[in-house]
TrEMBL record:
Keywords: Cell cycle. This is Enhancer of rudimentary homolog. The keyword Cell cycle applies. It comes from the Eukaryota. Pfam families: ER. Belongs to the E(R) family. InterPro entries: EHR_sf, ERH. It comes from Daphnia sinensis.
Length: 103
């Protein structure tokens, strides 16, 4: 459980920057998925159930101007930065674990 800060800049203007913090890296990765799901709901307001695959999620991530994480490192008492590729790898592992648990 490492405190994680998610930094998001969806558009080119710096005013679009936001951040969220999470108790763990996995919670943060779920947060990224939720951001995409909210984006899909805005695009498809009349669709009761929305599905997507990981390639669509990764494309969305790649279209963001900036997406990065700061993950707390207990040993050094600092936050280490991670980029989009690291985030996509963590999401892939998370979703694969969730799929393995599904009935």
């Amino acid at each position: 459980m490492s405190h994680t800060i998610l930094l998001v800049q969806p558009g080119p203007k710096p005013e679009t920057r936001t951040y969220s913090d999470y108790e763990s890296v996995n919670e943060c990765m779920e947060g990224v998925c939720k951001i995409y799901e909210e984006h899909l709901k805005k695009l498809n307001p009349n669709t009761p159930s929305i599905t997507y695959d990981i390639s669509q999620l990764f494309y969305f991530i790649d279209q963001l101007t900036d997406l990065s994480c700061l993950v707390y490192q207990k040993i050094s008492n600092t936050y280490a930065p991670y980029n989009k590729d690291w985030i996509k790898e963590k999401i892939y592992v998370l979703l694969r674990r969730q799929a393995a648990k599904a009935p």
